[in-house]
Amino acid sequence: MKIAVVxxxxxxxxxxxxxxxxxxxxxLSESDDVxxxxxxxxxxxxxxxEDVLERVEVRDLGSDIRIPLRDSxxxxxxxxxxxxxxxxxxMEEESVNFDCVVFxxxxxxxxxxxxxxxxYVHNPSVGFQRSEYSSNPLKSLYDGFLNLLAxxxxxxxxNLFNSEFTRDTxxxxxxxxxxxxxxxxxxxxxxxxxxxxxxxxxxxxxIDEAIDIIxxxxxxxxxxxxxxxxxGTPEYYLDRLREREExxxxxEIRTDVPQDELVEEMAKSKIGxxxxxxxxxxxxxVEYMKAGALPMVHSSGGVQSLxxxxxxxxxxxxxxxxxxxxxxxxxxxxxxxxxEREKDFDVESFREGVRKAVDSVTE
Length: 363
Fold this sequence. Notes:
By secondary structure, the protein is of the alpha/beta class.
């Protein structure tokens, strides 16, 4: 069987959806003839295993599809929409040469193809995201324009969603939930009374609230925040976190931490806090569980379906602090519970789901 795998994003960074793309390529290329289409294939050439690269033909769409408005980050959705239209037109013609086309990220296009399609949707509908974060009238008008742009999300023969939460934000398409692969070398080590908070250093990760939660607990806990500095990191926000670090002798803010140090800190942490609102999936929560750290996550978004709600989710700072105190009383039993739960998010389960999806639309 000949399969086209399309990565329709223009981002040059590496993250969860890139891991999804890599595992799709790895799984399908083991038994099928796979051609990989991307406007930014370079980052995958650097990260893919050598044996996968040998099995996959890589097609660089950058020469066929010019990325518009490269310097305007505020128009990211518009840029992606324009690129998707060009990719869609190109792949419509190419689809005659394939038995199946797999899109490894949400695709905004309304055309038709000559073969079955599978799509992996990793974030909520644009309408949901804009309704959550829009407030002033001018921005609402702009958001309405963006909603119109993205309204024709591609309806594949089979749509796969990264969480129940993501699936339920869509009214125009439906499908099945397939949790993304969580690859990590985290493990439970010798534990100390430490709390960890992982995530990019940006306002949307709500790191301030995670700090407030630990300040509210009745226990003498240490806390380490470990996150990446990105183009979206406001300098004033990092400065504010540094001020809090000076205020609390139990708090440490560490940026761009090497992986071996990250693994070491996770291994000795008993609690992991994820205070982001409406997290699409919440990969950090699974990473906490892999390290034997009890998660405490906000009761919104997809992350709440990953954990046991009564013990590991919260509505406000006071509730989170109270539950952390209670959970630490029963740490050993709960650690065994989360170490069992994290097995549901392994790479093999995802790869089996991808194979089953492709087989179901091509049989």
